[in-house]
Each structure stands twice: as structure tokens, then as C-alpha cells.
Specification:
- By secondary structure, the chain is α+β, with helices and mostly antiparallel strands.
- It has two domains: 2-60 and 282-414, no CATH class; 68-275, no CATH class.
- Helices cover 56% and strands 16% of the residues.
- A hairpin with a 2-residue loop joins strand 2 and strand 3 (126-136).
- The radius of gyration is 33 Å and the shape is elongated.
- The two termini are 39 Å apart.
Length: 418
């Protein structure tokens, strides 16, 4: 118990000596802080940006639905040993294939056939060029997550009979109608009048499909103005599995159905792709993993520069205080007291520099969030990482100077000219 009290007193006295040294040598302290601050700012800001980008990508792609399978001509993940010309020969998904899936599948909750293109949309003297036109069968609302702020979604009767109606995005509505109520009014696409029956709730920018500028049409009407068999409109089928059905189960079933529809022989390769959101998420995670390593290397160089700066200043500090070390040891100071004194100084320097670097990142995050339409955040993990790096660098940079200072001969040290 007495030994613990002695150790605590030793640590407290060492800390007081270290802090006094830092306060008295303000310029040297500032230069040391500057080096480690730049280092921590560099490496943690890289981690923060990458984490924020990864979270944004993951959130956007998760909106595609992990239990939704996309039947398409092209896969989202290419194999290095698969010639591209084989994909070119694949047939496009057809509306009739959706009907067959709906008849045969036992594990499907909802399925929809979609095409998309861009056209000029007009209302009176206002127009929007290259507006996204999305045409779908009735079950699209059961698969894709969206809300309608005004009006309604089209009914089964409207979808079946090909009524000229549309649900449009909030931003597109603001642009075309300005101060007028869009509901009940008619927009024009390729000279055709289409009644607006609903407005999508504003979503904001997203890496996946945003409904803010979209015109959604029933496929039965859209086929009058769009060639749904044209590859340029990217026809595809979305299939949502029933609750409790795994991706593997629904994909196995869909694979069998599609091979049957296409009349493929048992040994023939698939001529269709079954895509899901997790494929894209995995690809982005690999990309961000590489960027993360690059960030660690770049930030690591800055940290090393800061560490050398602290180590150099600690050597100078030991040399300047050689006489004081001699006096301390002459009046009974132990080697570990001297060592702790310099280690404390090094760690405090590094820790304060790291905290300043984290504060600068926090300020930068606030500025970025107010100017960029993306959510940046300084996570607790990165804060702990920054503090951990600072303490580690402080120990590594100060251990050698502290050891040298603690081993000085008191007689020689007292008589040394600093």
C-alpha cells in the first residue's frame, strides 16, 4: 500500500515538473504541438471522410433492398475470365417473363417490370430537359421504398388499362408548376398529355435512384411512347422475396424459372443476371478498403514527421535541463522519476496536439455539413483512434530521450554547461 502511495506521489510530481517545463518553453511547445496536430489532422480526417463516404454509399445502396433480386441482361459484378461479348448476346428481360415469374414462383412477394429513359417534360411554358422517365408495372410500390406527399399512386385499373397518368418528383413539380397545384394538371411528354395524380415526397440526393425528378408512368401506357424492347431503356425485372426466404432460396428458384423460360439446356450457361444490392456494397467496401490503406500511409508519414519533431525537441529539452537533472538526482530523485518526467512531457505534448487536430476536424465537419449535401461525422471510433495514436506517438518519441536523461551521472550532469 505504501509502495502505491509512493508511486502515485512520484507520478504526480513528475507530471507537475513536465507541465512546468511545457509552460516555460512556450515556443518549443507550440512547434511540437504543430507537428503532431498536422499529423493527427491528416490521418483522422482521411478516416472521417472515408467512413462518411462509406456510410453514405451503404445507406444509399441498402435502399435497393437486400431481399430484392434484379433480373437483368448485365451483371453488377463481372468475372475477369468472362468475355464481354457473351453478355452482349444475352436477351433483354421481357414483360412476358414477369408474367411467367408471377405464375410460377412460390417464394415471391411482389415483382415488377421496369424501363427507364430520359425525355423533355413540359407544362405550359416551363420544361425540364432530360428528366428521368420511369415506367413500371403496378407492384413497383411494394418493392421500392418511397412516400407520396400529395395525391396517390396509380390504381390497378389505371395500370391495366394504360391510363395516361403519372406520379412525379417533388423537385420536378416545383420546377414545372411553380406556384400552381400539380395534382390534376397535365404535363406533356413527346406531345402526349399525361395527368399528374401524385407527388413523391422529397428524398434528397442519393447514390441509388432518387425520386425527386422522376416521372413514374404505368408501363401499359408508357409502351405507347417508349419502345420497352429497346436496350437503351434498360428493361429489368425486380423481384421481392417473401419474409423468411433467403436470397439463396429466391435466387435458386428464379434461376430455375428463367432457365426454363429461356429453354436453356442443362449444361448451357445462364443468359441472364440475378443481381442484388450486396454485390455493389461488397465492391464499394473493397474500394474503400484500398483508399483506407492509402490514407493510413499518407497520414502515417505526417505522424512520423510529428513524432520526429517531438523526439528532437525532447532531446533538446534533456540537454537544456542537464544541470537540473543532476541537482534532482543529487537530492535523491530516482531514475524512474526523471524518466517519467520526460515521458509525461512527451505524451502531454502529443496528446494536446492530437486533441487540437481532432477539434480542427470537428470544425471542418461542421463546415462541410453546412455547405455540402452529404452527412459527414467524426465518429467515436476515430476520436479514440486519434487519441490512441497521439499517446502512442508521445511514448515512442519520448522513451529514448527520457531513458538517456534518467541515466545521467548526477556529478557529471551538475557540472555540464547546457
Amino acid at each position: 500500500m505504501n509502495e502505491l502511495k509512493v508511486l502515485a506521489a512520484l507520478l504526480r510530481e513528475s507530471l507537475i515538473f513536465a507541465w512546468s517545463s511545457l509552460v516555460m518553453n512556450k515556443l518549443r511547445t507550440f512547434l511540437s504541438l504543430l507537428g503532431i496536430t498536422i499529423g493527427i489532422f491528416a490521418i483522422i480526417s482521411v478516416f472521417t471522410v472515408i467512413d462518411s463516404l462509406a456510410n453514405s454509399v451503404r445507406t444509399s445502396l441498402e435502399s435497393l433492398g437486400d431481399n430484392v433480386i434484379y433480373i437483368q441482361k448485365w451483371p453488377w459484378e463481372f468475372g475477369s475470365d468472362y468475355p464481354w461479348w457473351k453478355y452482349m448476346k444475352r436477351p433483354l428481360p421481357k414483360l412476358s417473363e414477369l408474367e411467367e415469374i408471377q405464375k410460377r414462383s412460390q417464394k415471391t412477394e411482389a415483382a415488377a417490370f421496369l424501363v427507364n429513359t430520359t425525355k423533355t417534360v413540359q407544362y405550359k411554358n416551363n420544361s425540364a430537359t432530360d428528366a428521368p422517365i420511369l415506367a413500371s408495372t403496378i407492384d413497383y410500390d411494394k418493392i421500392w421504398s418511397f412516400e407520396i406527399s400529395e395525391g396517390r399512386y396509380f390504381s390497378p385499373l389505371e395500370a391495366e388499362n394504360g391510363v395516361n397518368c403519372a406520379v412525379i418528383g417533388a423537385e420536378l413539380a416545383d420546377k414545372l408548376f411553380e406556384n400552381e397545384d400539380p395534382i390534376g394538371n397535365h404535363i406533356k411528354i413527346l406531345g402526349r398529355k399525361i395527368q399528374v395524380i401524385g407527388i413523391f415526397k422529397k428524398q434528397g440526393k442519393s447514390l441509388s435512384r432518387s425520386m425527386d425528378n422522376v416521372v413514374l408512368l404505368p408501363i401499359s401506357y408508357a409502351r405507347n411512347i417508349i419502345d420497352i424492347r429497346d436496350e437503351r431503356v434498360d428493361p429489368f425485372i425486380m423481384v421481392k422475396s417473401k419474409p423468411g426466404i433467403s436470397n439463396e432460396e429466391i435466387m435458386d428458384e428464379l434461376k430455375g424459372i428463367m432457365r426454363s423460360i429461356h429453354r436453356l439446356k442443362p449444361l448451357a450457361e445462364d443468359d441472364f443476371a440475378l443481381n442484388r444490392a450486396s454485390l455493389i456494397i461488397k465492391q464499394f467496401e473493397r474500394i474503400f478498403g484500398v483508399i483506407n490503406i492509402a490514407g493510413m500511409i499518407i497520414g502515417g508519414f505526417a505522424i512520423i514527421v510529428g513524432a520526429f519533431g517531438i523526439a528532437n525537441i525532447m532531446f533538446v529539452s534533456v540537454r537544456e535541463r542537464t544541470n537540473i537533472i543532476g541537482i534532482q538526482k543529487a537530492i535523491g530523485a530516482k531514475n524512474r522519476f526523471i524518466m517519467f518526467e520526460f515521458l509525461y512531457e512527451s505524451v502531454i505534448l502529443s496528446l494536446i496536439g492530437g486533441i487540437i487536430g481532432l477539434l480542427l476536424i470537428y470544425i471542418a465537419v461542421l463546415i462541410a455539413n453546412s455547405t455540402i449535401s452529404m452527412d459527414f461525422s467524426l465518429s467515436l471510433k476515430n476520436i479514440i483512434t486519434g487519441i490512441g495514436i497521439s499517446v502512442t506517438i508521445g511514448i515512442l518519441a519520448g522513451i529514448v530521450p527520457a531513458y538517456i536523461g534518467s541515466r545521467l551521472n548526477p556529478v557529471v550532469a551538475i557540472n555540464t554547461n547546457s
